[in-house]
Design goal:
Length: 95
């Protein structure tokens, strides 16, 4: 199984308190984690740990799923891929 396929499966199975990460976001987080591609503004804010900014940029589905995003990253993403802007910047430079 490829790394992208593994993350895709984890995204389909992951939920926190019955809430899943919206399906329209799966490709963006997989591209970020596997290919180190800059995501959109909402996901970038989540990855940088700026939940206030993330809440402002979220569509209704992602507003509802914000806690699921946090727990997905903590449980499945490499620790060096998220947390603050500097960490995200370094991750994006690893192409």
């Amino acid at each position: 199984m490829t790394e992208a396929a593994r993350y895709g499966l984890l995204l389909r199975l992951h939920e926190h308190r019955g809430v899943k990460i919206p399906e329209h976001m799966h490709d963006g987080i997989v591209r970020y984690l596997v290919d180190h591609v800059l995501p959109g503004s909402f996901l970038h804010a989540v990855l940088c740990g700026d939940l206030f900014e993330a809440a402002q940029r979220a569509d209704p589905q992602n507003t509802y799923a914000l806690a699921s995003w946090v727990f997905f990253l903590r449980e499945h993403a490499p620790p060096e891929s998220y947390g603050d802007p500097g960490t995200v910047f370094l991750w994006l430079g690893r192409k």
